[in-house]
Structures are given as structure tokens and as C-alpha cells.
Amino acid sequence: MRFTKSIPNMFTLGNLYCGFLAIGFTANGQHKNAAILILIGMMLDSMDGRLARMLDADSALGKELDSLADIVTFGAAPSFLIYYTYFFQFGLLGFVVAGLFPLFGAYRLARFNISSPKSSQHYFIGVPITAAGGILALLTLFGNKIPQIIITVIFTALCFLMVSKIRLPSFKEIPLPKYGTIVTVFLGCLLYVIYTGTYGRQFPYLIYIAAPLYITYVAYRFVKRTHKKNEN
């Protein structure tokens, strides 16, 4: 029973470890590997909260751990990645600008943590750091095909959108991944085919564990919801 209660935290720690590995891959010049690891972290992040509710394992520790993992995987890791792939040419200025992303993300997370639990079930205030970090990771997979100015505009927009007052719909109650991850899965499948064709030997094999687990989880949620409807 105690092990069951710790399962959601294990997924959260897996998310955090993906962020650490992404930073390491970035430092070693394997930028596309780093981007893939951030997307894997996105998968794990979409599962831990739902697993906690399914297993009745919600806890204050889990919520704090989730925020700490998010700031690493979707704040620090994407900012390092975006610097080494696009902003490095600006030297120290580029490094300083890239470092703004986790600052905005941390503020957004702190504001979310003190917001009303009831409101967070129906909408998000500002773009979630998970989605923002995932978008930066996806952009880096396209290499030099996207002009520098577009990357800069998107990066700046995401920083301010995270701390904005814009309300975005939350899909926490549907039997699918939370907001932002649905699109990532479909794009990820497409990018996987493109990516392995060129970088297959360097592909992070953690995806072969995370992806089947993620698909199994989504299928379970779908079957469970369908079963409940049939009973009613």
C-alpha cells in the first residue's frame, strides 16, 4: 500500500531526471537528444497528477515535488537548450536572455501553487510552463530551418504569456493527457520518424520505456471511462 502511494512521486522524479539528462545532453552538444528528453519529461508530467488521484495518493509533498521538477525540466533545461542552439551567437547577452525563461516560469509556478484549487480544475491563468518548455524543445528539433528572429519572438512571447492573466482551458477531467501534451504526442510521433532517420544511433533509449507506458496509461483511462459510461 505504501509503495502504491509513492508511484506518482516516482513519475515526478522521472520527469526531474529527464530534465537533468537534457541539460547534460545539451552540454555535450547532443541538442536533439536533449529536446526529446524534455518531451519525455512532458509525458511523465502529464501522468503523475492523474495517477495520484487514481490511487488516492494526493499529498502536499507530491505537489511541491512536481513544481521543483517542472522548473528544472521545463524551465532550466529548455533555457540551456535554446541558448546553445540559437542564442549562443550573442555571447553573454544571449546567456542572460535565455536565463529569463526559468525566472518567468518559476513565478508562474509559484502563482499556480497559491491559486484556488477549484479554479485550476477548469482553466489555467497564463501558459503552463510545461507547454512553454515543450514548445521550445520542439523548436530546437527543426535545427536551423527556423529563422533566428522567429525563435526570438516565440521565446519572448512565451516568457510573458506564462505570467499573463490570459485564461486557457484545462482538460484535467478528460481521459487524455493534460493541456499541451496531446499535441506534443502527435507531433512527437512525426518527429520521431524524421529524427531516427538521421540521428538513430544517438537516440535516447529512455523513450522506449516512457512511450509504451504512456500509451498504456492513456488506453487504461479511455477504457475505464468507457466502462463507467456502460454501467450508467
TrEMBL record:
Q: Per the record, GO CC terms? A: endomembrane system; membrane
Per the record, the major location class is membrane
Ordered alphabetically, the record's keywords are: Lipid biosynthesis, Lipid metabolism, Membrane, Phospholipid biosynthesis, Phospholipid metabolism, Transferase, Transmembrane, Transmembrane helix
GO terms (BP aspect): phospholipid biosynthetic process
Pfam families membership: CDP-OH_P_transf (PF01066)
- Annotated EC: 2.7.8.8
* Subcellular localization: Endomembrane system
Organism superkingdom:
Bacteria
Membrane-crossing residue ranges in chain numbering: 7-25, 92-110, 122-143, 149-168, 180-199, 205-223
* Keyword Transmembrane listed: yes
Family according to the record: Belongs to the CDP-alcohol phosphatidyltransferase class-I family.
Q: What is this protein called?
A: CDP-diacylglycerol--serine O-phosphatidyltransferase
Top-level taxonomy: Bacteria, Bacillati, Bacillota, Bacilli, Bacillales
What gene is this protein translated from? pssA
